[in-house]
Design a protein that fits this description.
This is PD-(D/E)XK nuclease superfamily protein. The protein is of the alpha+beta class. It has 11 helices and 10 strands.
Amino acid sequence: MLCLLAELDPEPLRSALLLAPGRITVWREVSVKAGRGAPAGRADVIVLLDDIERAVMEVKLGAGAHGDQFAAYDVWADSKGIPVSARYLVGPNADPIPNEPRHWSRQLTVAGLLASWNRSPDDFARLLSVRALQQFTQLEAEATGPASQASIALSDALRLRRLASMTQAAAPPGTIFEPKQRSEAGAANICAWRKTADGYVVAEIQRLNPRSPRGGTGTPFEIRIMVGIPGATPGADGELADQYRSWLARRSFVQYAGSTVQAMVAAPEDDGFKTQKSRGKGHPRYYGYKGGGQGSSAVLQSTVDLNDMVTAFSAALQYLTTYPEQ
């Protein structure tokens, strides 16, 4: 969309990128490689001024940086003489992006760029930018409001990205956050853990059954608290969970967290382990994953908003510090 807007009216983009007068051309999803043997990448947007590459933009909405994509972009940009100040990592807002390269500019946001065309003399560009900005405003509201109001999976990705930023800043020392913010199934997921004498203890938050017909947005969020041993089988993780079953129980976490979190959790007095009818990979008595630990599930009320979820997940991170080492 940004490319289309720039074709209709290049002046807002010129202003945003501080480009000199001249003819602006925008390339979208361009394969870049500095030369033989150099790493290759696929840049979202390359901006040319009078046919010379002047800026590169990578847009990250719900995803984070992955692999060595920015290393490839940097090698290519260096070969083209594009300064570091003209390499832009563009998110929907100013929230941190997982694995973001620190030397790329976060000066621009998708919402801010769209707003640049709101007063464009081109009627179609102006209308398109206004409608697109309305959609982003709705996404922002969904990402911070009641979890039940999310309409698409991107809302969850934005919600959990912000939750990670807010909880990581105040997490207890020794807490390690998984940087990719995605589950193995591809759903938005925040996972944090601590090393223990036995292996590790984990807290994670994501939608319950994220592969629901509505793309995961039709179910409440859940917090899982699990224990695991690096490289162990689900059975071995389950045996470790047996040792700490009382500590892993939902009711133990809720009692520790206090009345505020208790009001957010469905059936706070239960243990949060699997019933005989529960299915899924892992140990038959616990919630978890092969190679990812085993433990309990605390399902949050569907009405919780972002601040509620920050409170609950922060409490879970604190609870990990009470793991009863033997």
